[in-house]
Design a protein that fits this description.
With about 475 residues, the protein is α/β, with parallel strands linked by helices. Helices cover about 35% and strands about 20% of the residues. Helix 9 runs parallel beside helix 11. The protein is globular, with a radius of gyration of 23 Å. The structure holds S-adenosyl-L-homocysteine (SAH), iron/sulfur cluster (SF4) and FE3-S4 cluster.
Amino acid sequence: MEVESLMAAQKEGSEGMRRGGGKAKKRLFIKTYGCQMNVYDSTRMADVLAPLGYEAVDSPRGADMVILNTCHIREKAAEKVFSELGRLRAFKQERAEDGGEMLLAVAGCVAQAEGEEILRRAPQVDLVFGPQTYHRLPEMVAMTARAGDGREGGGRGVLDIDFPAESKFDHLPEETSGQGAAAFVSVQEGCDKFCSFCVVPYTRGSEISRPVAQIVAEAKRLAEGGVREVTLLGQNVNAWHGEGADGREWGLGELLFRLSEIPGLDRLRYTTSHPRDMDDALIAAHRDLPKLMPYLHLPVQSGSDRILKAMNRKHTGDDYRRLIDRIREARPDIAMSGDFIVGFPGETDQDFEDTMQLVRDVTYAQAFSFKYSPRPGTPGADLGDQVPEAVKNERLQALQALLTEQQHAFVKSLVGREMDVLLEKPGRQPGQRVGRSPWLQPVIVDEKAGEIGDIIHVRITQAGPNSLFAEPVS
Ligand code: SAH
Ligand code: SF4
Ligand code: F3S
């Protein structure tokens, strides 16, 4: 689930245009850590800043504004931010020596959780704002101008980490950043589940769902702009609910049915789900909607009922197994994905073995596994009986070996099969294009097979460790 991505680079306006008296463009560099919600937020920050003249560039050097959109989910994530801030201080200095200015901003979940700490530890930072306030970026940027010459270290120290009463979605401008063939649409934010290991309820705030009309309008605009596949996002995306066009209360299943009617939108996905919110309508959507891709990321975290209870997950291992059975009955070719934590406080060898057994029972096409990382302010951090690092390492290795074996077996099982692939980008080698299978693997084809944005029918000829090779079939 974790991705680290650079904002799609849109090169600055040409030198000629600037000399020709066009409005000077400002260079914006956004670096994104963490989950897809952050990736989505980064594109929306670029949308908010576009009217101020900011255009995305692909390097922080010489930029007028740098935003680190941060993740707080595990310890290393926050440490990465502080080391990146160290590196950026030199670029900020360089920019000042050239007579320019580089605004340095920290956004996202570390900003929300440790805003004041950031301003204290990194005096070069001008702006700190959380995941729910970035629609106010124009005001914040204006405030940095009023904040005078800044503090020792050069930063202006503007802080906005409220959980505002208004929803940012009611204030964001329409999307301006170029979208490819596949795009994200955030439909749900925040979390009220309070799993005892997790910071998200504190960094993203309480659960909210965007209204149906807003989501449909955004999806339509994307489809009109050439987007063929939309992934609906939320920390608990299947807890989404809202009043439908028919006046009834809808859940995610009904929303997917509605979105499947949008012309041009051919593929739908959603992530991340909680097992407790997989209701009948959503399972029915997997059965009845060909546009809903047969891939489901459904984290379980552990296979031990004792640990699941301590994690406050409110389901057992067998609840999860039964749920998967029902989903597979509805959509037999569905590929399962999940998240696992090893070394939660009190986890014994037997508890860990229960996790391994659950993985063997379910069989995953892909999965993410992590060592438990105690997060300040979460109940898990205060539990006794923390598991030694060496034991966590051993368990993680064993679990990852099993998951990798399952992933390879899944990818191999696709060789010889025919499927539709959405072409998304040029390949690394000249003459290639990369698309995505319905089960999310990258599929490499010859560029003559089709244009970016096409959905082509292919036969898989060969499997690498993480990607597939294919040839078109008519
Ligand atoms: N909302 C999603 C998960 C969001 S966080 C859900 O409920 O499933 C993504 C993943 O990070 C989690 O599924 C979990 O496996 C992992 N994670 C969260 N907190 C963690 C922690 N303190 N230590 C290690 N891994 C953690
Ligand atoms: Fe975190 Fe649990 Fe909420 Fe997922 S459901 S975001 S793991 S608290
Ligand atoms: Fe990280 Fe925040 Fe997402 S903590 S995983 S960026 S919700």
